[in-house]
Amino acid sequence: MKEWITGRNPVMEVMQAKRRQVFRLLLASGVEEKGRIAEILRAAALIKVPVERVARERLERLGENPQGVAVEVGVYPYVELYDIYDLAKERNEALFVLVLDVIQNPQNLGTLLRTAEAVGVHGVINPQHRAAEVTPAVVSASAGASEHLLITRGNIARSLEQLKEAGAWVVGLAEGEDSSAEVPLGGPIALVVGNEGEGMRALVRQQCDYILSLPMRGRIQSLNAAVAGSIVLYQVLLARQKTSR
Known about the structure:
Blueprint: E1 2-6, H1 8-17, E2 22-28, H2 36-46, E3 51-54, H3 56-60, E4 69-74, H4 81-91, E5 96-101, H5 106-119, E6 123-127, H6 136-141, E7 151-154, H7 156-165, E8 169-173, E9 189-194, H8 202-206, E10 210-212, H9 225-243
Parallel strand pairs: 2-3, 5-6, 5-9, 6-7, 8-9, 8-10
Antiparallel strand pairs: 1-4, 2-4
């Protein structure tokens, strides 16, 4: 199968990651070939991708806000859980995994993937069913960060068991819970972010070693799943930086 990725940053990240098969690059006729567009053209030349110049209207049919560029690629390259373990070992770092329990909104998934890549997670686990997949819309929402991440799909409860066996603490993010000050964010960790409306499923929640919630001081009683998850991902990063000093 083939699909179209649009937008300057997502297209550039596809080129740089070199994880997908790239078939051809489309440029809008008359687009200025400087800045990011020039970088994309250089990257395409390096991997010998043919370039076609087409009408802007054609690009606009391929995706939202294409910014004058689109690339035709193979499907997203999911990995196995052991690939995530291998990356942690390669970096000589304590395991850091983001586990998504049925995130369904593509924008939320893209936001979480963008943050996950920024904080240096070793991989992301996504369910096989009922959840948003890494579609072109998600690639766009992540600004192309998804192209640099190791993402596996599987049974979440079973994956959490395996992560525990690998030495990770499983920390679930939930609203309105009493957070323990002893949550070990600086060591090997699997952070679980639940569904936008229902939170974590019961079986997944039972697998958590700790439940963490964010303090709410204002009138709003909850945060978007992607926002809350992103905040805690950065809390983990800061804790890991302290323990590595």
